[in-house]
From TrEMBL:
Gene Ontology CC annotations of this record: cilium
Organism: Dryoscopus gambensis
Official protein name in the record: CFA47 protein
InterPro entries: Ig-like_fold
Organism phylogeny: Eukaryota, Metazoa, Chordata, Craniata, Vertebrata
GO biological process: sperm axoneme assembly
Length: 659
C-alpha cells in the first residue's frame, strides 16, 4: 500500500511509518480459491479487491494518501511443494523437483481514502434550550476526493435529528445538512454521531454475491444543554378541614401507600419545641405524648394506637380520643392476637432450628471418616490475598490463523506455519492407529484442497542412485503436518524390493514433522523404477516414485600393470616388491581372491593377502613380491576374482638392473 505517484523521499518516509505486518489475504479474495480441473477443462475465477487503511507507528495526517498495491497471485497444484522438503532432507541424495507446477498472476489496484470534511468542524455545539424546545445548526459536508463519490448514512442518535439522514456526494461536491437538538429530558448531552460510508462488499455467507454495507465510519461530537423552566409555587392556606391526612397548611396531601393498618393515621408535628400557646399547667408535662395537628379529625372516627397519648399543637392539652366499642379491640382480644402472633413466630423458629440440626448432622456424617476425622477440610482457612504483581508475565504467542475457506493462503502465512512445524523435534515413533476420541474425529475428516496443500509428504521422487545388488539402502520419506488437526498416513507397497519399509501407518499430530525410512533391497541387476501409494485419512491418494540403478558387485584396481623395482634396505631375495590398491565403489562389501596365471613354468611372483573383503566405499592394498632365482621368469600375471562380480587381470614385471 504505497503511493507510487509520490517522490522517492516521500515514499521512503511513508514506508518507515507504516506497520509492515499486513495480511495480504484481507486485500484480495479469489473465488473459488481451490478446486479440481479435469483434463482440458476451463474454470472462471472471480477476484475481489478490498483495500484497507494501513496502521502506522506514528499518527500522521494521511487524509490525502493513496495506497497503490502490486500483488502476485500464485496458482499451484496440490502436493507440488518440493522446495520445502528439499530443506528437510539436509543435502541427502534424495532429489526433489524444484520447478513445481504453478502459474503467477500479477494484480494491481489503488485504494483512495475517504475525504469527507465538515464546516464548522467535527464538534457541533448547540445553544441552550428548554425542555420541549428545539435548536438547529446548519453544517456543510464536502467530498474532497477527486476520483470517487461518497454514499453516507447518519445513524440515529437520541435527542438529535439530522436531515437528510442519507445521501450521495459526487466528487468535489458539497451538501448542507441540518442538525436539530430536541431534548426529551433535562441535562447536558455529549453524543457521538456515527456516519457510515456505504459501499459494496462481499457477503461472508455467500462470497459470490456483492451486498451493500458500511466499510468506513466517521465520528462527530454533538454537544447540547437542556434546562428546566422555573415555576413559582403559590402556597394557599387550607380554609377548612381536609378529609385526608395533611400537614399544617393543608397542601401536598399525603396519599396512602396501600398497606392496611389497624389504627387510624394521625398527623404528627415532629417539632415539639414551640411553647407560645402552651398552658402553664401543661408546660412541664413529660409523659412522652405526641403532638397532633388540629385538622386530623379522621383519627377520631376510629381509635388510634391505644397505648399512646396525643396532645394538641398549641395548648398541649391532652387530646380527646374517642374509642368506639364496635370497632375497638378489647383487652382479651388484644391478648389473643399477641398469643397467635407469638405462636406462629415460635413455629417458624422451631422449623428453622430443626432444619439447622439436620444440616449439621448430615455434615457430620459426611466428614466422620478415618481420613477427615470429623473435621471439614479447609475449615477456618483464609484465602490468600492475590495481587496482579504475583502473576508471571506470559509470553505472547502468535496464534496460527485458521485456514478456512474464506481466507486465502499467503506466502508469509504459509512460511510461518512451516517454520512452526519444522522447528519442533522430529517424532520418530507415532501411533499407527487413531486411538483417542479426538484422533478418530480428526482422521475421519475429508480434507479440502487447501488443507492438502499444507501437508508435505515427499520427496515425490526418491532416487537411490547407484546401489549394489544384495545391499540394503535407506532413504527418508518426510511428512510435515501443518494443520491444526491430526492426520492418518497409510502407505501401500507392492514392490518386493521395498517390503522392509516400516512403519506403514502413522497418526501425525498437529504441527508436527516426522519421517518414514524407505528401505530398498534387490537381487536383480538393472534399472529399478516403481512407485508406491499412500493415503491421507484413508481417502486422499498420493504416489511416490522410487528410482535406483542396481549395479553388480565390483572391485577396481589402481593399475593393470605393475613394475617391481628393488627397494633399498630389504633382505636379499625380497627386495623386489610393490603394492596395488583395491577400491570398492559400491555400497556393499565385496569378497575377492587372487589366482596366479601360470603356464609351463612356475610363477616367481606372490601376492598377499590372497583373499579377503573390501568394505563399502573403501580400499585395500595388496603387496606383490618377486622372488629372484636361476631361470625365474621376470613376468607374471594374477586374476582378481570377485564372487558374483567382475574379474580383472594384473600383469607384473620385474625390472632388474645390472651394475
Amino acid at each position: 500500500g504505497t503511493d507510487l505517484q509520490g517522490s522517492t523521499d516521500a515514499v521512503l518516509q511513508d514506508l518507515s511509518l507504516k506497520n509492515k505486518d499486513v495480511d495480504v489475504s484481507t486485500l484480495i479474495l479469489c473465488v473459488p480459491d481451490q478446486g479440481t480441473l479435469l483434463p482440458y477443462e476451463k474454470s472462471l475465477i472471480t477476484l475481489y479487491f478490498s483495500p484497507e487503511k494501513l496502521e502506522r507507528d506514528f499518527e500522521v495526517n494521511d487524509s490525502s494518501l493513496i495506497q497503490d498495491y502490486v500483488l502476485f497471485l500464485r496458482f499451484e497444484s496440490v502436493g507440488k511443494r518440493g522446495g520445502c522438503l528439499q530443506s528437510l532432507s539436509d543435502g541427502a541424495t534424495a532429489t526433489t523437483r524444484s520447478h513445481s507446477c504453478h502459474v503467477d498472476l500479477a494484480l494491481m489496484g489503488s485504494g483512495f481514502p475517504v475525504m469527507l470534511t465538515f464546516k464548522p468542524g467535527t464538534v457541533i455545539d448547540f445553544k441552550e434550550c428548554y425542555l420541549g424546545e428545539q435548536t438547529q445548526v446548519v453544517c456543510t459536508m464536502k467530498n474532497e476526493s477527486e476520483f470517487l463519490p461518497v454514499t453516507f448514512s447518519f445513524r440515529k442518535t437520541a435527542h438529535f435529528n439530522i436531515s437528510p439522514e442519507r445521501g450521495k456526494l459526487k466528487k468535489k461536491s458539497e451538501k448542507e445538512v441540518t442538525f436539530s437538538f430536541s431534548p426529551h429530558q433535562i441535562g447536558t448531552f455529549e453524543m457521538k454521531q456515527i456516519i457510515d460510508i456505504i459501499g459494496t462488499g462481499v457477503d461472508k455467507n455467500n462470497v459470490n454475491v456483492l451486498k451493500t454495507k458500511s466499510f468506513h465510519q466517521i465520528y462527530l461530537t454533538l454537544l447540547g444543554v437542556c434546562k428546566s423552566k422555573q415555576k413559582s409555587v403559590l402556597f394557599a392556606i387550607n380554609p377548612g378541614l381536609t378529609p385526608l391526612i395533611s400537614n399544617a397548611t393543608g397542601q401536598f396531601v399525603a396519599r396512602g401507600t396501600g398497606q392496611l393498618s389497624d389504627t387510624a393515621p394521625v398527623a404528627i408535628l415532629k417539632s415539639t419545641q414551640t411553647q407560645i400557646h402552651t398552658h402553664r399547667k401543661n408546660r412541664n408535662c413529660k409523659d412522652g405524648a405526641l403532638i397532633a395537628f388540629p385538622n386530623d379529625r379522621a383519627a377520631s372516627l376510629r381509635p388510634s394506637e391505644w397505648n399512646k397519648k396525643y396532645r394538641t399543637i398549641f395548648t398541649k392539652t391532652e387530646r380527646y380520643n374517642y374509642i368506639d366499642p364496635d370497632f375497638a379491640y378489647t383487652h382479651s382480644e388484644r391478648q389473643l392476637r399477641e398469643e397467635c402472633k407469638k405462636y406462629y413466630t415460635d413455629f417458624v423458629s422451631r422449623l428453622r432450628q430443626r432444619r439447622l440440626e439436620k444440616e449439621a448432622s448430615r455434615q457430620f456424617h459426611i466428614y466422620n471418616n478415618p481420613v477427615s476425622i470429623g473435621i471439614k477440610p479447609a475449615e477456618g482457612l483464609k484465602s490468600p490475598n492475590i495481587s496482579i504483581a504475583n502473576f508471571p508475565k506470559e509470553k505472547l504467542q502468535h496464534k496460527m490463523l485458521p485456514s478456512d475457506d474464506s481466507c486465502m493462503l499467503t506466502s508469509r502465512k504459509l512460511a510461518a506455519i512451516v517454520s512452526k512445524s519444522t522447528n519442533k523435534g522430529v517424532w520418530s515413533w507415532l501411533s499407527p492407529m487413531p486411538s483417542s476420541t479426538q484422533e478418530k474425529a480428526d482422521c475421519s475428516l475429508t480434507l479440502t484442497h487447501k488443507q492438502l496443500h499444507q501437508i508435505f509428504i515427499g520427496p515425490s521422487t526418491i532416487d537411490f542412485g547407484d546401489v549394489c545388488v544384495y545391499s540394503t539402502t535407506t532413504r527418508e520419506l518426510h511428512i510435515v503436518n501443518n494443520l491444526s488437526i491430526h492426520i492418518w498416513i497409510q502407505i501401500e507397497i507392492e514392490a518386493v524390493e521395498l517390503h522392509e519399509t516400516s512403519p506403514l501407518s502413522q497418526v501425525v499430530p498437529p504441527l508436527t514433522k516426522t519421517h518414514i525410512p524407505v528401505v530398498f533391497e534387490t537381487n536383480t541387476v538393472g534399472m529399478f523404477k516403481r512407485s508406491f501409494s499412500y493415503k491421507i485419512n484413508n481417502q486422499h491418494l498420493g504416489h511416490v516414485l522410487v528410482i535406483a540403478n542396481v549395479m553388480p558387485v565390483e572391485l577396481q584396481l589402481s593399475t593393470r600393470e605393475l613394475i617391481l623395482t628393488p627397494v633399498p634396505g630389504c633382505l636379499a631375495g625380497t627386495e623386489f616388491r610393490r603394492t596395488v590398491q583395491l577400491c570398492n565403489p559400491r555400497n556393499h562389501p565385496a569378497a575377492f581372491s587372487w589366482r596366479p596365471v601360470t603356464g609351463d613354468r612356475k610363477s616367481a611372483f606372490s601376492i598377499k593377502p590372497t583373499r579377503g573383503f573390501v568394505e563399502a566405499y573403501s580400499d585395500l592394498e595388496c603387496e606383490v613380491v618377486w622372488h629372484p632365482a636361476f631361470h625365474s621368469p621376470e613376468t607374471g600375471e594374477f586374476t582378481l576374482c570377485v564372487p558374483k562380480g567382475n574379474s580383472i587381470k594384473l600383469k607384473c614385471f620385474a625390472k632388474v638392473t645390472i651394475h
